[in-house]
Amino acid sequence: MHWLLNGFLKEVEEHGLSRESKIYDIGNLGSTDFGVVRKEGEHVRCPIDRKLCAAYVDGLKGKDNVGPSTFMLSYTGYVHKSWD
């Protein structure tokens, strides 16, 4: 939670977004340019498959930002697709 409150939200606001922004906007998922979420792991190798572009959490550093967790925080996104 420390990172979400003190690092992540700061990054979101530095990218011109608000605290109420949707994950679709924060990740810049509609663009080939990486947003806040994808940018964090852009130049990091995934610890699982060793390929570039790791998960957001794999790009975090610092004892106050990473470590053992006692809770899981997840999200789901919804993208409406027209079948016309």
* Sequence stretches where pLDDT stays below 50 over 5 or more residues: none
Number of helices: 3
Question: How is the main sheet built?
Answer: none
Shape: globular
Secondary-structure element string: HHH
Total beta-strand segments: 0
Mean pLDDT: 80
CA radius of gyration is 14 Å
Measure the end-to-end span: 42 Å
Percent strand equals under 5%
| Alpha-beta classification | mainly alpha
Structure report:
There is one protein chain. The relative contact order is 0.15. The N and C termini lie far apart (42 Å). The longest helix is centred in the N-terminal third of the chain and has 13 residues, at 2-14. 26% of the residues lie in helices and 0% in strands. The chain contains three helices and no strands. With 84 residues, the chain is mostly helical. The protein has helices spanning 2-14, 23-26, 36-40. It is globular, with a radius of gyration of 14 Å. The protein has a domain at 2-59.
Q: How do the strands and helices of this protein lay out in sequence?
A:
Elements (H helix, E strand, L loop, with lengths): L1 H13 L8 H4 L9 H5 L44
Provide a brief overview of the structure.
Helices cover 26% and strands 0% of the residues.
